[in-house]
Write a structure and sequence with these properties.
mainly alpha, two-stranded antiparallel sheet, about 5% strand
Length: about 525
């Protein structure tokens, strides 16, 4: 009997050492913008000696034939390359694919979020939920909140705790379920959001290292992402009700807990919400009616969903319009806006919120350009492809290995865009050389990037979630929250990988123009 507590203490000590190690390593990493800057400098320096070496790789093409590919690294410190960067300095930044689309999308969604329209919509969904379906509804609303940037962290997670407490359940279980939905299921979404646009732009840039004409549809993962919502709700429901909450029942809520009362939506807010929602439906209807005729200008050769279709090219603009108009209407109806100048003030505030993102994108753009111009991206991709091909593990094992690698890296670099900017120039071309399409690699990235968010102390909102828990249990710390969330991470990671493999095995579409395989024209 005496050995069991001792083993328990040893395992706790190992876990704490592991978590402390993660925190130490993560804290040593520079800010994302500096990380890209240092990486760019490293690429420039490394390109000099490697430019004197000729590399060759033997790969098997789609016809099963062995093809020798030669690759050369270009010296970025040469006068020619330095002049290229100087003369194209502005173009490299302003034409960086993710830059404009995210800024435009966030301006529209930001208005809807800032005025309170999004928050009321999320609260209404939670308010109409029967107690027995509270867990799946919290998870559903948490995943639905992804279209509104960080609204889930600010609104849904604390409300999850309040609603569980009001229902006589442990509030921390409600916080955990909401946190899992918002963060561990981050890439599972039915409504196209800025994250889809951002990843698409980065993936496309990486794919063009191999194929300069390659186009990635912004909705290429939409079907898989939508199905993942319902799949992960079931998984999260089981973990919450059968694992997390039973364990939390042994943890008493503080007698002086700062329990917030659920803030009711006022009649004025409710009326404004319904009017604004009708406006949103009307705006969407305009685009639907416009798209219906077979000769619609939104179609390309009769298709609405091909990459060349104006509708697909207009997704960002449509997201902007669909959210900004009802957001403005709601703002006026609740008195948030008094005059037109107030809207401009809100847009200005949105841009202020994006200032750090813009700085990061500046350095991202030059990192990607340096990686592309040096040829290092192609070199690493071919080397990795040759290694994996020689291992002969098959495409499915390769994708699983990529997911596990991404999930590990995610513990240290929280930003989805920053991570994908770093990894995509390597993973996307490398898997393309193995016949795996960029759309499938992007889907794999979304799985790995999401599941470990909730156990990384370096995740932006992790400390905030600790504070939410401390409202009910003051002794809650980083380790406490990680121990609560680990079951979600393990369950989501394993089951989501299996779900992707089954989805792939059945040949179900990843999304619109969501390809599984890429035919490399060597």
């Amino acid at each position: 009997m005496g050995e069991q507590p001792q083993m328990k203490d040893q395992s706790k000590g190992l876990i704490n050492k592991f978590l402390n190690g993660i925190e130490w390593v993560g804290n040593k990493l520079p800010a994302p913008a500096l990380l890209f800057f240092y990486s760019m400098l490293l690429i420039m320096i490394v390109s000099l000696p490697l430019s004197y070496v000729d590399f060759s790789f033997t790969l098997t093409n789609s016809h099963g034939e062995s093809v020798v590919q030669t690759e050369k690294v270009y010296n970025l410190l040469s006068g020619e390359k330095l002049l290229y960067f100087l003369t194209d300095f502005v173009r490299i930044f302003v034409t960086f694919a993710p830059l404009g689309v995210v800024v435009v999308g966030m301006l529209g969604i930001g208005i809807a979020e800032r005025t309170g329209y999004v928050n009321v919509a999320l609260q209404k969904l939670l308010n109409i939920t029967p107690k027995k379906l509270l867990t799946p509804m919290v998870l559903f609303v948490a995943m639905l909140s992804h279209f509104a940037a960080d609204a889930g962290y600010i609104v849904v997670i604390p409300i999850g705790g309040i609603l569980f407490y009001a229902a006589g359940r442990h509030p921390v279980a409600g916080i955990a379920a909401a946190f899992a939905g918002v963060s561990a299921g981050f890439s599972a979404n039915m409504i196209p959001a800025t994250n889809d646009i951002l990843l698409q732009g980065i993936t496309q840039s990486a794919a063009r290292i191999v194929d300069p004409e390659y186009t990635v549809n912004v909705l290429s993962n939409w079907a898989f992402g939508s199905a993942s919502v319902f799949f992960l709700i079931v998984v999260g429901w089981f973990v919450t009700d059968k694992i997390v909450e039973p364990r939390l029942k042994r943890t008493q809520i503080d007698d002086d807990a700062q329990v917030e009362e659920h803030k009711e939506i006022t009649a004025k807010e409710s009326q404004a919400f319904w009017i604004s929602s009708i406006v949103m439906v009307a705006v969407l209807s305009v685009f639907v009616i416009w798209a219906i005729p077979t000769d619609s200008l939104l179609r390309h050769e009769g298709s609405l969903t091909s990459a060349g279709a104006p509708l697909m090219k207009s997704i960002v603009a449509i997201i902007f319009i669909v959210f900004i108009i009802p957001g403005i209407v709601y703002g006026y109806l609740v008195g948030y806006y008094k005059k037109a100048d107030d809207i401009i003030t809100s847009l200005t505030e949105n841009m202020k919120d994006m200032s750090s993102f813009l700085i990061m994108m500046f350095f991202c753009a030059f990192f990607i350009e340096a990686f592309t111009q040096s040829g290092l991206g192609r070199l690493i991709a071919l080397a990795g492809a040759e290694t994996l091909q020689n291992m002969n593990v098959g495409p499915k094992t390769t994708v699983v290995m990529a997911i596990l690698f991404i999930a590990f890296i995610n513990l240290f670099i929280g930003s989805a865009s920053a991570k994908w900017v770093l990894l995509s120039p390597i993973l996307v071309p490398m898997l393309m050389h193995l016949g795996i399409a960029p759309e499938l690699t992007q889907a794999a990235y979304r799985v790995g990037d999401s599941t470990t968010n909730i156990i990384s102390p370096l995740m932006t909102y992790f400390a905030l979630v600790v504070v939410y828990c401390q409202r009910y249990i003051k002794t809650t710390g980083i380790g406490t929250l990680i121990s609560i969330m680990i079951p979600y991470t393990i369950a989501f990671l394993i089951s989501w990988i299996i779900f992707l493999l089954i989805w792939w095995g059945l040949g179900l579409p990843l999304g619109i123009e969501g390809h599984y395989f890429y035919t490399h024209h060597a």
